[in-house]
Amino acid sequence: MADERNYKIAVIPGDGTGPEVIREGVKVLQAAAGRFGFNLDLNYFDWGGDRYLRTGETIPEGGIDELKKHDAIYLGAIGHPDVKPGILEKDILLRIRFELDQYVNLRPVKLYPGVWTPIKDKGPEDIDFVVVRENTEGLYAGGGCFLRKGTPQEVAIQESVNTRYGVERCIRFAFEYCRKRNKKKKVTLVGKTNVLTYAWNLWERTFYEVAKEYPDIEVDYAHVDATCMWFVKNPEWFDVIVTDNMFGDIITDLGAMIQGGMGIAAGGNINPQGVSMFEPIGGSAPKYTGKNVINPLAAICAGMMMLEHLGEEEAARAIEKAVIKVCRDHLKSMSAGKMGYSTSEVGDLVAKYTEEGV
Amino acid sequence: MADERNYKIAVIPGDGTGPEVIREGVKVLQAAAGRFGFNLDLNYFDWGGDRYLRTGETIPEGGIDELKKHDAIYLGAIGHPDVKPGILEKDILLRIRFELDQYVNLRPVKLYPGVWTPIKDKGPEDIDFVVVRENTEGLYAGGGCFLRKGTPQEVAIQESVNTRYGVERCIRFAFEYCRKRNKKKKVTLVGKTNVLTYAWNLWERTFYEVAKEYPDIEVDYAHVDATCMWFVKNPEWFDVIVTDNMFGDIITDLGAMIQGGMGIAAGGNINPQGVSMFEPIGGSAPKYTGKNVINPLAAICAGMMMLEHLGEEEAARAIEKAVIKVCRDHLKSMSAGKMGYSTSEVGDLVAKYTEEGV
Ligand SMILES: CC(C)[C@H](C(=O)O)[C@@H](O)C(=O)O
Ligand SMILES: CC(C)[C@H](C(=O)O)[C@@H](O)C(=O)O
User: Fold this and answer.
1) Contact A153 B165 (CB under 8 A)
2) Which of B89, B115, B121, B198 best tests the A interface by mutation, with the highest count of A CBs <10 A?
3) How far does the centroid of ligand 2 lie from the alpha carbon of residue A37, in Å?
4) Domain named Isopropylmalate dehydrogenase-like: which ranges (chains A, B) (predicted)?
5) A194 lines ligand 2 (CB under 6 A)
6) Statement to judge: residues B165 and B251 lie in one domain
7) Shortest Cα–Cα distance, A106 to chain B (Å)
8) Of the candidates A4, A14, A104, A8, the residue with the CA atom closest to the CA atom of residue A59
9) Fewest C-beta in 10 Å: which of A95, A243, B53, B195?
10) What is the residue range of A303's domain?
11) Which of A212, A228, A258 is the last residue before a domain boundary?
C-alpha cells in the first residue's frame, strides 16, 4: 500500500507566471500529501520559451519517453512573448497531448460560492457541469495544404479528421464520467450536424449507439452556436457535455469565463490507460510575471484534479474545500492584482486549510 | 428618381413563426415606405417545410433565377419539426447564400437601451460592434468524405476550404465597413492561427496585407476561444470583427445573446454586387407558432438592415428609433410570451412610431 501511494510527477512549470502558480500548487499538493499520507516524487522539466530561445529545443530528444515514466504531469503555462505564437503550443502542449494519447480534455465548469461570474442571476447551483473535449483528432490533427500559396489563386485547406475509434472512446468516457458523477445524469452532444455532415454524422451515430449502453443516462444534442447562448443564459441545463477538439476549445473558454475566469479554471488531459497531464487553462500572462500577483487557484485546482485522477479522492476533496473557503472568505476578486492577497499568500492559505481541514 | 426608389423584394416567410414575424416586418417596412416616399414591390415565395412535405421540393426549378430578379430578399425562418434537421437549412438557406454569392454575413451586435442583457455591468455604450462573417466557404463548403463508413475503422473527414479570393473580399468588406461606420475604427481578426496553420495562415497574411491599405484603421487579432470570453467580459473592446464561416456562426450566436437574444438579433447575407438577403437570426420556433406571442423585432431589424442596404438610410434610422422607443417604453422582455404585448401589437407600435417619427 505504502508503495502504491508514492506518485512520480513530472512538473513542467513552463513560461511566464507558470512557475509562480506551480510553486503554490506544489505547496498545496505537499500539504495534502502530509495530511493524507501519500508521497509525491517531483521531477522538474525546464521546457518552455526560455529554453527554446537558449537552445532551439522545445522538447529535447527522449523527452516524451521521460514523461512516460511518470504517474502524471503537472503543467504551468506555455507561451513566451519573444517566441512566434504557435511554436511552443504545437511543439510542447499539443505534442504531449497527442504523443501520450491524452484523448480527453476534461474541463469542469463549476462556480464556487463567493466567486464573481459575469453573468446575471446565476449562482453555484446553476453553474456546475463538465465538458469532455476530444483531445487528439479533429481539426487539431493538423492536416491540410496550400495550393498556389502567395498568389491570388491561393487555396488553403484545413482538415478535420474524425475516427470511429477516437470518437467512440471519447463519448464512452463522457457516459462513464456522467454515471460516476451521478448528478443530473445527462450527456449532451455539442456539434454542428446540420452543416458539417461528415464529421458530425459520425459523431451523432456513435453517440446514439454508445448511449444505448447507458439507459440510466438522458441524452441530448445541441448545436455549438446555440450552446454558447445557453452557457450564458441557461448553464443549469448542462451536466456532462461531449464535443470535438475545436468546439471544445471554444466552449471551454466560455465556460471558464462563467465560472469566474482564468484565475480559477483548470483542466485535465486524460489518457485513462496512460499518463495524464493537468494544467491551469490560462496562458503564461507575461505582463504579470514575477510580480507575485497572479491567481494560483487555477493551478491549485489542476493539482486537485490530478490527485483525484490518481485516486486520492479524499485529498482532492480537502483541497476543494480549502479553495472554496479561500474564495468565500478571503479573495476580493479572481483577477491578477485584485485579489487582495499575493500569489504566495493565496497558496499559503489554501495549503493551511488543506492541512488543517475546514 | 421615382423609378429608382421602387424596390422589388422577394419575401420568403418560411416555417413556424417565420410568417408571423415577416408580417410585422412588412407592416413596418410599408410604414417607412409611406413616410419616406419609396415603393416596395413584394413577391412572396412559399418555400419551406410545408411545401417540402407536400411536394418534396425545397427550392423549385428556376427558383434561384427568380430570386436574382429582385433587389433584395426578406427571409423569415427555415426549419420544420417534421423535416429531418439539415435538409431545409442546406437546401434553402445555405443554397441561397452560396448560389447568390452572398459572401458576407453581417451581424450587428448592438444592445438597445431598455433591453435586458444576461451579462453584468454592461450597457448600450459597451455593446456595439459588428461581426463580418465569411459566408460562402470554409467548413460550410461541405467538402469531406467517409472511409469505411459504419465500421470500427471508420474515418470521417470534414474540410475547410479557404481561398485568397474569398478571404480577401471578406476582409476588404470589413475594412470598408469599419471606415464607413466610423466609430472605434478597429478591425479584429478572430481565428485560430496557433493551431489551424493552413486556413488561418492564409487569413492572417491576407488580413495584414489588406490592412496596409487602411492606415486609418487599427488592427487586432484574437483567438476564437478568447474572443468568446471577451464577448462576455469586455464587449467594449470590439468595433468590427472579421472571421470565417464556422467561427462566425458560433460567435454571432453568443453576440445575439449579449444583445438581448433571438428576439432582437438580425443579420444580412450580403453580396455587394448582387442580391442580398436579410433575416432574423432565430429559428422557426415551432412551439410558439400561431400564438401571436413571438417577438417580431428581429425581423423588423432585418427589414431595417435591408432598407439601409438599399440606400434608404433615413428610413432605416426612423425604424431604428421606433424600435428603440418600443424597447425602452413598452416591452417587458424580449422573450416570446413575456413581452407584455402580442406579436402584432409590437408590429403596430413600431409601425406607428416609424410613421410618426419619434
Ligand atoms: C494553447 C492552445 C494550443 C490550446 C488549444 O487550442 O487547445 C488552448 O487554447 C487550450 O484550450 O488548451
Ligand atoms: C441554420 C444554420 C444552417 C445557420 C448556419 O449555421 O449558418 C444558422 O445557424 C445561422 O447562423 O444563420
Assistant:
1) yes
2) B198
3) 54
4) 8-350
5) yes
6) yes
7) 16
8) A14
9) B53
10) 1-103+273-358
11) A258
The total number of structural domains that make up chain B: 2
Which pLDDT score is estimated for B320? 98
- Confidence at residue A1, expressed as pLDDT on a 0 to 100 scale: 43
Looking at residue A3, its pLDDT comes to 61
Interface touch B254/A162, C-beta < 8 Å: no
CATH code for position B283? 3.40.718.10
Distance B72 CA to ligand 2 centre (A): 19
Q: What is the dihedral of CA B315, B316, B321, B326, to 10 degrees?
A: 100
- Give the confidence band of B123 by pLDDT, cuts at 50, 70, 90: very high
Q: Chain centroid to CA B238: how far?
A: 18
Would you call B8 helix, strand, or coil by DSSP? strand
Residue with CA closest to ligand 1 atom 7: A249
pLDDT of the residue at A2: 46
Residue A4 has a pLDDT of: 81
The shortest C-alpha distance from B85 to chain A (Å) reads 6
> Is position B264 within any domain?
no
Tell the burial category of A152 from Cβ atoms under 10 Å away from its Cβ (0-12, 13-18, 19+).
Answer: exposed
Same structural domain, A89 and A165: no
Closest by alpha carbon to A76, among A42, A48, A40, A110?
A48
Which grid cell is B326?
Answer: 418600443
Give residue B229 CA to ligand 1 midpoint distance, Å.
Answer: 14
| Residue B16 sits in the same domain as residue B72 | yes
Does A265 fall in a domain?
Answer: no
- Which of the residues in chain A have pLDDT under 70? 1-3
Range 95-154 of A in CB contact (< 8 A) with B:
117-121, 139-140, 142, 144-146, 151-154
Q: For residue B240, is pLDDT > 80?
A: yes
Residues of A in contact with B224 (CB under 8 A): 249-250
Same domain assignment for residues A43 and A131: no
The pLDDT assigned to B2 comes to 46
A352: Cα separation from own chain's centroid: 25
